[in-house]
Amino acid sequence: MSREFKPRGADYKKRVKQIFLEANFIRLLEIELLEIEPGLIRTSLTVQDKHKQQNNFVHAGVISTLADHSAGAAAGTLIGEQQVVLTLEFKVNLLRPGIGDRLRCQAKVIYQGKTIIVAESEVFAEHHKREKLIAKATVTLAVLGKLYG
């Protein structure tokens, strides 16, 4: 049984775009926002040398960040204008080494409560025009009032 999520406010896409524009680390990694729907986000990253670890695989931190931030953005489509989401916990299963020219992530909300949202992310690596699932994450986020700092 699939649950349909509804955004809170007509400008949810604009708010999610701001999540990407205002996140310095996400800009540094050059993560691209591809699609925004209520409870669903698709992102990608063109793999560069700066993303790789010593064995020439995409670093687990890059994969984890892609999964976490995409999940946060998916949750961000469902909150009010005066709210933010903040990751409480995440678990990443690294299924294969990050080998490829491009990473793609799909994150979707699987539970929405008043103060907690849970999302799942899947990260795929594109290599020689083939795509393989390399990581799966579960992300638990707190819904908070606007933070200033």
From TrEMBL:
Q: Which UniProt keywords apply?
A: Hydrolase
Q: Where is the Thioesterase domain?
A: 56-129
Name any one GO molecular function: fatty acyl-CoA hydrolase activity
UniProt cross-references to CDD domains, sorted A to Z: PaaI_thioesterase
Q: Which catalytic reaction applies to this protein?
A: a medium-chain fatty acyl-CoA + H2O = a medium-chain fatty acid + CoA + H(+); a fatty acyl-CoA + H2O = a fatty acid + CoA + H(+); a long-chain fatty acyl-CoA + H2O = a long-chain fatty acid + CoA + H(+)
Domain of life, per UniProt, equals: Bacteria
Q: What is its EC number?
A: 3.1.2.20
Per the record, the similarity remark reads:
Belongs to the YigI thioesterase family.
Q: Which NCBIfam families match?
A: unchar_dom_1
- This chain belongs to the protein called Medium/long-chain acyl-CoA thioesterase YigI
